[in-house]
């Protein structure tokens, strides 16, 4: 989309072309339909856009257009506003409230003024259209020019549930300034032997915006019934972002059998640790186990005092 060089020109565009109307297909609204729609206006190639995309340097004024379609037989009064972190940068001017006649479309221009001190990277924003208690949110993908940093962390990794209902829970945090499309790979290890890994790496059906935290779970239907497991998550995203997180937990069956199994496992681990400590204490490097020290009877009579040497500095 074009860039308006000055706010004065942007205001002129809004005043001269606040609402452009043209006939929509004469199709009465079916029962249950909301009666109106809102979407980004099609470009020169008449392509459908799922969201607005705007890019520019700090201090510039960007413009785009919104299409409102009234498919009902009555006039609709729709109010428009900006929302989310950069929503206050969006202005509809005199077209913040639009009256759309029956079976008509209105093309409404708006501007987005990027403050001069805006940091580079992606900034979340949205356009909200409201009428009659119904609200439609359209995403605005705004990128401010400058160095891009893709960075994330994996936190709070934990295994929850048992058996086929087990899941791996974790939190992703976007530490950079660009939106991320992460992909996760999971590796599992067991204390008692090999365990089946959770489903292999896959792209997550989410978009992680800068500064956002997202709690996610991955199913693990093949989790062992009785073992101490350790899971390692490796998350990557385009742009060079990579993070690793780990978590561990004892998995035991429920009921008395599970508690008995956990007790036996704990006893076995304690026994193994005790044997290891005893062997390490008795072992002497290079000489094998130390022999038992012979019994030495105590010396008769009082112990004579140790000889005392006077510190004179003279050679002896």
Can you offer a commentary on this structure?
The protein has helices at residues 7-16, 255-282, and strands spanning 3-4, 20-23, 36-40, 52-56, 61-70, 76-83, 90-91, 97-100, 104-113, 121-131, 134-144, 152-160, 167-174, 183-190, 202-203, 213-219, 227-237, 241-251, 283-284, 288-289. With 316 residues, it is mainly beta. The chain has 2 domains: 3-144, Immunoglobulins (Immunoglobulin-like), CATH 2.60.40.10; 152-255, Immunoglobulin-like (Sandwich). The strands form 5 sheets. Strands 1, 2, 3, 5, 7 and 9 form a 6-stranded antiparallel β-sheet that branches. The protein has a 5-stranded mixed β-sheet with strand order 4-11-10-6-8, with no helix packed on it. A 4-stranded antiparallel β-sheet has the order 15-14-17-18, with no helix packed on it. The relative contact order is 0.11. Mean pLDDT is 79; it is low at 7-26 and 306-316.
């Amino acid at each position: 989309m074009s860039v308006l060089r000055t706010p004065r020109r942007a205001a002129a565009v809004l005043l001269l072309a606040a609402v452009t109307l043209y006939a929509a297909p004469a199709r009465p609204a079916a029962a249950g339909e909301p009666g109106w729609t809102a979407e980004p206006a099609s470009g020169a190639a008449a392509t459908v856009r799922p969201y607005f995309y705007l890019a520019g340097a700090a201090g510039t004024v960007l413009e785009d257009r919104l299409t409102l379609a009234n498919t009902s037989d009555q006039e609709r009064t729709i109010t428009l506003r900006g929302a989310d972190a950069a929503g206050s940068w969006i202005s509809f001017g005199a077209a913040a409230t639009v009256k759309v006649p029956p079976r008509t479309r209105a093309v409404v221009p708006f501007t987005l003024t990027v403050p001069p001190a805006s940091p580079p990277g992606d900034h979340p924003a949205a356009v909200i259209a409201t009428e009659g208690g119904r609200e439609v949110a359209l995403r605005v993908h705004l990128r401010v020019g400058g160095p891009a940093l893709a960075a994330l962390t994996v936190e709070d990794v934990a295994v929850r549930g048992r058996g086929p209902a087990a899941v791996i829970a974790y939190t992703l945090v976007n530490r950079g300034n660009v939106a991320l499309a992460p992909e996760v790979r999971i590796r599992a290890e067991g204390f008692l032997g090999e365990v089946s890994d959770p489903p292999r790496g896959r792209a997550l059906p989410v978009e992680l915006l800068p500064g956002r935290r997202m709690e996610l779970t991955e199913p693990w239907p093949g989790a062992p019934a009785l073992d101490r497991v350790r899971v390692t998550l490796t998350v990557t995203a385009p742009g060079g972002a990579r993070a690793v997180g780990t978590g561990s937990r004892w998995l035991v069956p429920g009921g008395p059998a599970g508690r008995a199994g956990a007790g036996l496992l704990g006893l076995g681990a304690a026994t193994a640790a005790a044997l290891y400590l005893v062997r390490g204490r008795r072992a002497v490097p290079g000489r094998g186990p130390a022999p038992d020290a012979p019994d030495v009877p105590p010396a008769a009579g009082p112990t004579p005092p140790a000889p005392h040497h006077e510190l004179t500095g003279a050679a002896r």
